[in-house]
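Q: Could you write out the predicted structure for this multi-component system? I'm mainly interested in how the pieces pack against one another.
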Amino acid sequence: QTVVTQEPSFSVSPGGTVTLTCGLTSGSVSTTYFPSWHQQTPGQPPRTLIYGTNTRSSGVPDRFSGSILGNKAALTITGAQADDESDYYCVLYMGSGISVFGTGTKVTVL
Amino acid sequence: QVQLVQSGAEVKKPGASVRVSCKTSGYTFTNYDITWVRQAPGQGLEWMGWISTYHGHSAYARKIQGRVTMTADTSTSTAYLELRGLTFDDTAVYYCARADSHFDSGEVHWGQGTLVTVSS
């Protein structure tokens, strides 16, 4: 069974840049997987940041950007701020109406 | 404004069933699908399934296939998630989202979540 992989954690300095990735245990991620990215803070529902690889949701700051880097989907935070400290999850579409969440990345800003 | 309001917390015994509702407002219900996601305590998000509110078509994660049914009541603009044969592993917060199966149908709106606790 294919697993969607993410880095467990990342630390970034305020104002710094961090790139989170979303890969597959078997195969390469492309736009046909419709990668999306969701941010979650403890006790809150998720917030969708990016969908369709690189489309930002309404109200999402442009310091968040989505792309394909090599064989993975990527979420880049440019100019990190303190309130970007959250868990980040990607989702990949596997076909036949089925999607799978990644394992999640905990981002610390310090 | 778009709102998805979920039903309240539930406590169920192992083997029982639970039904969670997701009442929508602020948009045309049948223009957008509903996706269900859950999160066990201290764990990550898990995609459960999706339903087309227009056609009634659905798809479910393999892990829960056979125990889950998602429905949509167009008369009340409400989506429902039913999960049967509950086990302790089904203890989680359940979220509905206005989204197609791959979150690519425009702006995604989320419900507030419903805690389902399975306890003997």
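A: Regarding packing and overall arrangement: Chain B touches chain A through 25 residues (CB under 8 Å).
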